[in-house]
Amino acid sequence: MPLLDQATLDRLRSELDDNQDVWTIFVTNFVAYLPIRTEKLRLALTTGDCAGALDVVLGLKTSSQMVGAERLAELAFDLEQSIRTDSNPDPGRVLPRLAAAHLSQIERCIRHTSHPLLKYLAMRQSRAI
């Protein structure tokens, strides 16, 4: 699975009618919000908050898919499936284990995804000038 799908980014930009400001803000906000999402996910998992963990992981998956962060979306999907199937009947014990099993890989992927996204954004901005 590729880290970043540039065709998805191109399609997003096209769907926004090549409105550079909206597209730039969307991608920049996605990258800027990743640490916040990660911390919310960590908190929800380690406190056994199943609904909160699902909310955050679904948001991470969906937004990652929208910007073409394919590997990150796949990791979020895997965690989502684990939450849905493994957290019953005792989320207070299971979810912290899922945090230990999944969060470091998600964080590493975020670090590797953020730079190419920002690089792609800068490249597109320089072409627009």
In short:
By secondary structure, this protein is mainly α. It has helices spanning 6-15, 20-46, 50-67, 70-86, 91-128.
By helix and strand content, what is the structural category? mainly alpha
Kindly report the average pLDDT value.
Answer: 91
Summarize the helix and strand pattern as letters: HHHHH
The first-to-last residue Cα distance is: 32 Å
- The percentage helix is over 70%
Q: Kindly provide the name of the CATH class.
A: Mainly Alpha
Radius of gyration: 16 Å
Architecture per CATH nomenclature, i.e. the level-2 architecture = Up-down Bundle
In total, how many beta strands?
0
Strand content: under 5%
Number of helices: 5
Largest sheet geometry: none
Task: Indicate how many domains the architecture comprises.
Answer: 1
| CATH topology description | Four Helix Bundle (Hemerythrin (Met), subunit A)
Q: Return residue spans where pLDDT drops below 50 for at least 5 consecutive residues.
A: none
**C-alpha geometry:** elongated
Any descriptors?
5 helices; elongated; 129 residues; 85% helix; Four Helix Bundle (Hemerythrin (Met), subunit A); single chain; mainly alpha
Architecture blueprint of SSEs:
Elements: H1 6-15, H2 20-46, H3 50-67, H4 70-86, H5 91-128
How would you describe the overall organization of this protein?
There is one protein chain. This protein is an all-alpha fold and 129 residues long. It has one domain (6-128): Four Helix Bundle (Hemerythrin (Met), subunit A). It has five helices and no strands. Helix 2 runs antiparallel to helix 3, helix 2 (20-46) packs antiparallel against helix 5 and helix 3 (50-67) runs antiparallel to helix 4. The longest helix has 38 residues, at 91-128. It is elongated, with a radius of gyration of 16 Å. The protein starts with 5 loop residues before the first helix and ends with a helix. The mean pLDDT is 91.
